[in-house]
Structures are given as C-alpha cells and as structure tokens.
Amino acid sequence: MHYFFKPRFLIVGAVSLMLSLGSVASASHLTQDEVSLLQAQIFSALNTINNLEIQLAATSDATSLPFPPIACPSPQIVSDLYGGERDLLISRNPIVRARGEVTALQDFLWQYKGRYSATYWSPLNNLTNKSDLVTGYYGSRTSNIVKAFQQQFGVSGPNLGDTEFGKVFQKTRTEIERQCVSSLTISTPNGGETWHVGTTTTVKWASNNIATTTLISFGARNLASNTDYSLGSGGFLNDGKEVINVPTALPGGSYLFFIKANVGGVIVNDWSDGSFMISVPPPPPMIVAPGTLFVSHINATSTPYSVRLTWRDSSTNEGWFVLERSTTASTTGFSWIAIPTTLCSACSGGYRTYTDTSVSFGTTYYYRVKAENASVQSAYSKVVSTFLGVPPPPPGTALNVVSGTQPQPTLATQGALGLPFTRVRFTADSDGDVAINSLTVERVGLLDDAAFTSIVLLDENGNHLTKPIRLDMNHKAVASFLTPLVVRAQKTRELTIAANMACSLTNYAGHVGALSLVAVNTS
Questions:
Q1: 396 and which of 65, 250, 370, 434 could share a cystine (Cβ 3.0–4.6 Å)?
Q2: If you ran DSSP here, which 8-state letter would residue 491 be given?
Q3: What is the pLDDT of residues 180-232, one digit of tens each?
Q4: Quick one: which H or E segment has residue 242?
Q5: Which secondary structure element, helix H or strand E, spans residue 123, and what is its range?
Q6: Are 311 and 369 within 8 A, CB to CB?
Q7: Which H, E and C letters describe 126-153, residue by residue?
Q8: Residue 75 to residue 40: CA distance in whole angstroms
Q9: Tally of CA atoms within 13 A in the half-sphere of 201 that contains its CB
Q10: Regarding beta strands 351-356 and 452-458, do their DSSP bridges make them parallel or antiparallel, or are they unpaired?
Q11: What letter would DSSP give residue 282?
Q12: CA 353, CA 356: separation in Å to the nearest integer?
C-alpha cells in the first residue's frame, strides 16, 4: 500500500488563496475592526501557504517512497503535556518509566521522521535512534518536535502568539487524532504467488487503528474480465492471518487480491501491490457413452422371469456403469438399479450384460445406461423398452429336429453375406412350448475355417436371430439367440444356418465345405 502527496493540488490551492486575499486587500474605507479582522486572516493565510510550500518541497524530489499510515498514540493522550512532564518512574538504575501519555506522544512523533524536510523538523530528522526521543520525559527535544508538528499542520506557530506552541493542549490533541488513520495493508498475496482452485491458502495483512473484533472480507479481481470474486464476505476477525478456501468456480488467470472492512461506516480497503495467478487443473477426460442398449427376455418358460440387457462398452476410462429403469416414458421417473462393481473390474471394450430379475408381467419397462468414474460421467444411451405380457406356459418336454428344405448347392462368392448352407426344422410336442437358447454349428468338409468370417442364424424371412459368431479352433460356433426362439406346442419353425464369406477366396478355389447342426440348447 502506497501513500503519495499530490503537489499539483497544493499549488492550485495556494494560488486560489492568494487571489482571494488580493481581492480583499483592494477594498477601501475599512473600519478599525475590519482592519484587525483582515490582519488576522492574512496572518492565518500566510501560515497556511507556508505549510503548503513546505509539504510541496518535502515531496517534490521523491514521491515513490511509501510511508506507512500514522498510528494513533497508545495510550490515548487526554492530558495537557508540556516541559517537565514525565511518566511514572519504575527503576532509577537504569532509568525505566512506565508507558504513559508522554511515551505515547514521543512514539507518535517518531513516525514523522523523514516525512518532511522543513528546517523545523531537524530536531527529529537528525536523530538516529528512537530511544533518543522515546524516554518518557517531556524535555526540550520533545518540545521542539511538538513545535514542528504544530507548524506543519497549522495548529500553532512562533508568530501566532498563543500559549500552546511547544505544548500539547486541546488543539494539538485534536490534530493528533485527525492524523490517525484506519488502514489495512496486505502482505500475502502481494504479487507473484500462485493459488490452485479447490485448495486452501493463507492470507496475511496488517491493520492500523482497526479493532481486532472488526470483521474483514476478502476478494480477488480477475484482470482479464475485471470481475470481482468474493473469498469470504465479512466473516473473519481482524487478527492479521486467515486460511481461506480457493473456490473451484474461479476461472484461471491473473488476479489482484483485495481486503476491506467497515470501520464506523467507512469502508477501508487495500489491494495487492502486484498480481498473482490462480491455476485451474485441466478437466478430466470425458467418458464415451455406452453403445446401443439391447433388451431380451430370458427364462421364458420358467420362473423367475428376467430381462437381459446388453450394451457395448465404448470407453476405456470408466469405473462402473449405472443402469436405470422406469415404468414410465418420462426420464424423471427413472430409478437406479445397482450393478456389481465387479462388472467393470477389467473393462476394456466389448459387450456388457446385466440381468434384471425384479420384473413383473403385464408391465412395460424402460431402460438406459451410462458410464461413470470418480470424476466425470458419460451421456446416457438411448432409452429402450420392453413389455412383459402374460406369464409363459410351462415348458414342453420334447423337440423334434429334422432336416429342412435344403438350399441348392452353389458357388460361394467372395464377400457374400448370409449365404445359406443348411436348413433345420424344429417341432414341439403337444405338451408345451419349447424355448431354444442356442445352436452349435460345425464346419465339415475340406473348406478351411478362414473362408468364413462368421456364422449367423436366419428365420423363415431371412432375419438375423443371432449376432455373427466366428468358428473356434474346433471348427465350431455356438450361436446364441438375441431372444430365445420359442417353438409353440405342435408348431414348427425352420431356421437357416448361413455364413458371411471372406473377402478373398482365391486360396480356396475348388474346395467343398458344409455347415452342420451338432447341438441344440433348450429350456
């Protein structure tokens, strides 16, 4: 915090005063009382001009050196003080006096050392040690410095003829109180520091003539946007030090720190001498939302009836998934369904599944899923729904499997999709429906497994009933139905075992191969 005089205003004030005196002096035919009054005004004005010139001379050569604010005497000076006054003697050898009003006065006057260069300040400016003045005894040295104070601020002077010159009476005590200022001075942060949002930091300050019970508030001004941010409004005692939180909402950048207090209805504040930085860590990486959510019914012929949910894990930095379910289409009605954390113990892509066993018949359920970690969360997947109708009938006990109407032998072309190889018919007995969960298919013949990219199952209309499955090292593929295939009692379903061919079949020209059904998994 810096304190500077403003010489240009002092000059204007002096010139204006002299012009006013000139106009008064030009008047004529004055009475004796008017002449006496004019003489007193001229004397007072000349003394004021002299003080202004002294202040101007004292600050014309160095306005960049700051002086701290003047502290009030402690204890307060309420008595008349003059030569011979002394504080209470505690010890004679060495001489030690209790701190009283004389010591308080001398401490107060010492603060003016070096502030002014007028000749009458030489008794103070020529002193080297504070102890040369602060003795608790009101001697000639103290009297001369009191005279300097009185002349500097127009309280008294050698030409005024009053009895207060060199003594501390009411006028001088009033000026001493006027010279005391309430002030705050920031020491930390005062330029060059770096704060980090979400952490704590310590701010320090000094105060003058402000009670320790006064509440202090802090703030920071962003220099880029010129926006002020509160760092604690009116909630800290004036004890010179406070640990505050650096809000996470603060934008990063360069700031000035400020402190303020309400002292008797007057706002006293201070700003840091230099700027400091507030650092904001980069945001955590975003999580890619899960892929399409698929829903299927399982345990279709037994209880408990369940809904299986499958989705693609599209990210690599999630910690877990949150699956939500609702019985209304409104997103506000969703309730959370817990998913075991072991589901993502090694998440690295692929498909994730969850089985919801707490469902009831005759209800439509809506589902959505999102990925989360300790810092961020992804967007939701699209909402999917499923309706659970009437309870399933008891399962049948027998399923007849026979060869269907086979496709005509043909040449396999490169990159062919859904190329039919084998058709199979499934017929349920009259004792109930049968649900088929999966079929096991085996490649036979000389054709190499590499000629197939994947195996699929098709219904009577050519619709895909399974995800594409690759052949394993035993030339087999277990094709699970997206939704269990239910063959009603005394009804027949015909499925086609088909293949997606490799993009290049050059190495397999003339080879013959087939796909055979070797196992059926039912429930």
A1: 434
A2: -
A3: 878 889 999 999 999 999 999 999 998 877 888 888 999 999 999 999 999 97
A4: strand 241-245
A5: helix 122-125
A6: yes
A7: CCCCHHHCCCCECCHHHHHHHHHHHHHC
A8: 36
A9: 21
A10: unpaired
A11: P
A12: 10
Residue labelled with tokens 């003594």: 167
Is this model's pTM higher than 0.85 or not?
no
Exposure class string for 397-411: b at 16+ Cβ within 10 A, else e: eebeeeebeeeeeee
Which residues have a Cβ under 8 Å from the Cβ of 125 and sit 6 or more positions away? Answer: 113, 114, 117
Quick check: 460 and 498 in contact, CB under 8 A? Answer: no
**Total Cβ atoms within 10 A of residue 297:** 19
* Dist CA 178 CA 113 (whole Å): 18
The whole-angstrom separation of Cα 224 and Cα 275 is: 12
Task: Give the H or E element holding residue 367.
Answer: strand 363-372
CB atoms within 10 A of CB 354: 18
CA atoms within 13 A of residue 210's CA, in its CB half-sphere:
26
Amino acid residing at 431: D
Supply 362's token pair: 């005759």
Provide the token pair at 481: 């139905």
Q: How far apart are the first and last CA of the chain?
A: 85
Bridge partners of 296, per DSSP, are: 308
Within 10 Å of residue 166's Cβ, how many Cβ atoms?
A: 20
Phi-psi region of 55 (alpha: psi -120 to 50; beta: other; left: phi over 0): alpha
Residue pLDDT, tens place only, 422-481: 999 999 988 888 889 999 999 998 889 999 999 999 999 988 888 899 999 999 999 998
